[in-house]
Amino acid sequence: MLRRAMMRTDKKFPKYHQRLTSVGRKFHGTRFEDDPHFDMNNHLLMSRLPEPAGKRELDDSMGRFIAQDWNLTRPLWEMVILENYHDEDGGECAMVSRGHHTLADGQGFVLSQLYMTSYYEELTKAMNNGARTLHAARRGTLLPSKVHPILRPLDPYTDPLNVLIAPLVQIFLASLFWLTYAFSLPVSFFFSVYQALLQITMFILTCRRVEMLTAPQYGRRVHEREFSSSKVVDMNDIRLCQQAFSGLYPGSVVEKEKGRRDKVRHVTLNDVMCSVMADVLAEEVISKPQDTSISGRVRKMLAKYLPSPIGFFIPISIRNPGDWSLRNLSTGSMVYLYPMSPDTSIGPGTLYDHIHRCRSALSLLKHSLFPRILFYIMQVTGQVPTLWPVPFGLLDSSKNLVRKWVLVPLIEWSLRSFPVVLTNVPGPAKNTITLEGIEVMCWMALPSQSGTGTIGVGIISYAGGLCISVAADKVPASEGVTRRICERFERRFDCYVRCAKEVIEHRD
């Protein structure tokens, strides 16, 4: 059944039967070509978990699965059905899939996975509607009320039969779109410069004293990985937090007299989740055994005088509406979030300030142009590998001392300058979906990790709920860190919900 579903997906996304070629060439990048020896059976596997084949065994299997090396002579994806998995929610098997980042970015890979489920019709409709809406907005043919509710009185004048006024309305709407776009560019550039200066400052102040979530690794990086996922939290509870902490003060979002939302200082799902994760990761760092080495004592001393936020690397998709292509259309940026002090009692006021501090940092990230600009610069220069990142690729690797002793250590150090890669993947939000008639009860996604000691955290919404998944290096001295983070997430989120209910009930 899975093979039949993947055959449909393979027709839509040819990269599923293509392999990388031209690896290591100096004057053009790698390419994808059809694999003449492609066999679907090499990528669809069956396996069994050790008994009792529950969540703990599934987590262990996931850790081994994501730690496997890739066979670069084949298409870079694979799926495994764990046929004997079962849990208390009624799950009867588990399916695990992974794709290499050269195959696609996270959003593109998730789109291709959703395409083989019952969600593909709704997904196709949503993708096409998004593309049509953007195209209509650029041409001025979008219904005025969909541009902004204040323009609703112009709706009757857009009738094509009204040959005198309809063209004028279209010209007005197209001009409005492009004038707004032209005005937003300098505003975005201003905030981009501000964000870049802030990032550079925080990078300089924190890069040499980053507190990882795992124990220190001396020598080569461990090959093993560990994985865990949280329980599903209700999306209604997240909306409750948004309602309680949006607006000018806690509880101000609901205007009972007017019966509408106040959109001033609106808190998004990402704002709430990132605030929770900042607290969770800070709590895990504090619980680690004290580092009594010289470097550990120096970091502890500097933390008293220098800011100590948690650095999150957040991938950013630049995929246009309606783009189904399996390409790596993602960039990313750092954002530094301050957790609540562990000594601070959680109250409506303190939690409101904390969430909005994270909201401000994330808002700067969303409006920054530099991640997108950097993406296109890398796209152009990356087509000639010898020029990227610096022109030292003409020499053989054995003789290239600059690459060996300067470039590679610098890249590895930069990949260790933050502790976590965090991504949010929206999924089918309302109802469960099916794969060849089989209900998908739970679904989760996970980003790749970065350098030594970093963790990857995936946040995904599905069927009215949301969960997180975490992967980390399996270091003996900190083993179990992924499970502890997931448990801390569940407890911390419950605290947010209790506080939000207190705000709403008090307002009522």
UniProtKB/TrEMBL annotation:
Query: What InterPro entries does the annotation carry?
Result: O-acyltransferase_WSD1-like, O-acyltransferase_WSD1_C, O-acyltransferase_WSD1_N
Residue stretches making up the O-acyltransferase WSD1-like N-terminal domain: 2-108
The source's superkingdom equals Eukaryota
The reply on keyword tRNA processing is no
Catalytic reactions on record: an acyl-CoA + a 1,2-diacyl-sn-glycerol = a triacyl-sn-glycerol + CoA; a long chain fatty alcohol + a fatty acyl-CoA = a long-chain alcohol wax ester + CoA
- Any coiled-coil regions, as ranges: none
| UniProt-listed Pfam families | WS_DGAT_C, WS_DGAT_cat
- Occurrences of domain O-acyltransferase WSD1 C-terminal (ranges): 394-476
Q: In which pathway does it act?
A: Lipid metabolism; Glycerolipid metabolism; triacylglycerol biosynthesis
Which keywords are on file for this protein? Acyltransferase, Transferase
Q: Which PANTHER family match?
A: O-ACYLTRANSFERASE (WSD1-LIKE) FAMILY PROTEIN, WAX ESTER SYNTHASE_DIACYLGLYCEROL ACYLTRANSFERASE 4-RELATED
Q: Which family does it belong to?
A: In the N-terminal section; belongs to the long-chain O-acyltransferase family.
Q: What is this protein called?
A: Diacylglycerol O-acyltransferase
